[in-house]
Specification:
It is a single chain. It is built from 5 helices and 10 strands; from the N terminus they run H-H-E-E-E-E-H-E-E-E-E-E-E-H-H. Helix content is about 30%, strand content about 15%. The longest helix is centred in the N-terminal third of the chain and has 20 residues, at about 30-45.
């Protein structure tokens, strides 16, 4: 699907004439649907750490505080439970630290091991920050629109643009948003959207299988102790 087909499908659902173009349309109804679709896309991007939006980032430190180019322009947030690693020293940085901890370490010119980090002015701040070290972390990209095979953006630009997460969710979200904007009842539509969204999130979320069977040969349970307990008879 594409932006055009998304709007066409929604128009068919809400009994409007499907457009032949979206971005160049001067029809107030189509313009409203385009704006609502942008809001729907941004909300979906923020409601879940979609695997298609997850980026593995590595960079070489410059030694500056904060790092001038980190995080990159498409960064929206760190992935849930993600950590920042110093791949050069093979340790995980501590953070984000609160202002009091940061100031104390800076004022006394400490050298914490591992290093500490925080966000300052939207940039990644590391202390101490030695130049030339390799840092790694995972983040969620805010560029949820695909303009081509490898070109992404935060907003629609062309009728042929596609979303990087399930586009049927955009359609369902767009329908209830349009009904709400028109003052119509949208309870059933939003409920349908929420059910589909939870199903899509569940399918996208990685989870290890739960094995309730006994350990296989050669394996040991987590609480297994390899020692021997000797009980005295005396």
């Amino acid at each position: 699907m594409s932006l055009l087909t998304i709007i066409q499908n929604v128009c068919a659902e809400i009994d409007l004439d499907p457009p032949t173009a979206v971005m160049s349309s001067a029809d107030p109804q189509i313009m409203q649907l385009r704006i609502l679709s942008t809001r729907a896309g941004r909300d979906l991007m923020r409601e879940h750490d979609w695997s298609t939006l997850m980026v593995q980032r590595q960079f070489a430190t410059t030694g500056a505080n904060p790092e001038p180019a980190e995080p990159p322009a498409d960064w929206d947030r760190f992935a849930a439970n993600s950590k920042i690693w110093n791949a050069s020293r093979l340790w995980q940085l501590n953070g984000p630290v609160e202002p009091q901890t940061w100031q104390r370490n800076r004022i006394i010119n400490s050298n914490p091991v591992p290093q500490i980090w925080r966000m300052a002015g939207g940039k990644l701040d590391i202390h101490p920050n030695a130049a030339g070290e390799t840092m790694a972390y995972e983040y969620i990209s805010g560029f949820w629109v695909a303009n081509g095979e490898a070109t992404y953006a935060a907003n629609w630009a062309n009728d042929t643009d596609t979303a990087r997460f399930p586009e049927d969710l955009l359609e369902l979200s767009l329908i209830w948003r349009w009904k709400r904007a028109k003052g119509l009842d949208y309870g059933e539509e939003i409920a349908s959207f929420e059910r589909s969204k939870e199903a899509a999130i569940g399918a996208d979320r990685a989870a290890a299988p739960v094995d309730l069977s006994l350990p296989a040969r050669g394996q040991a349970p987590e609480n297994y102790w390899p020692g021997t307990i000797t009980v005295s008879n005396s």
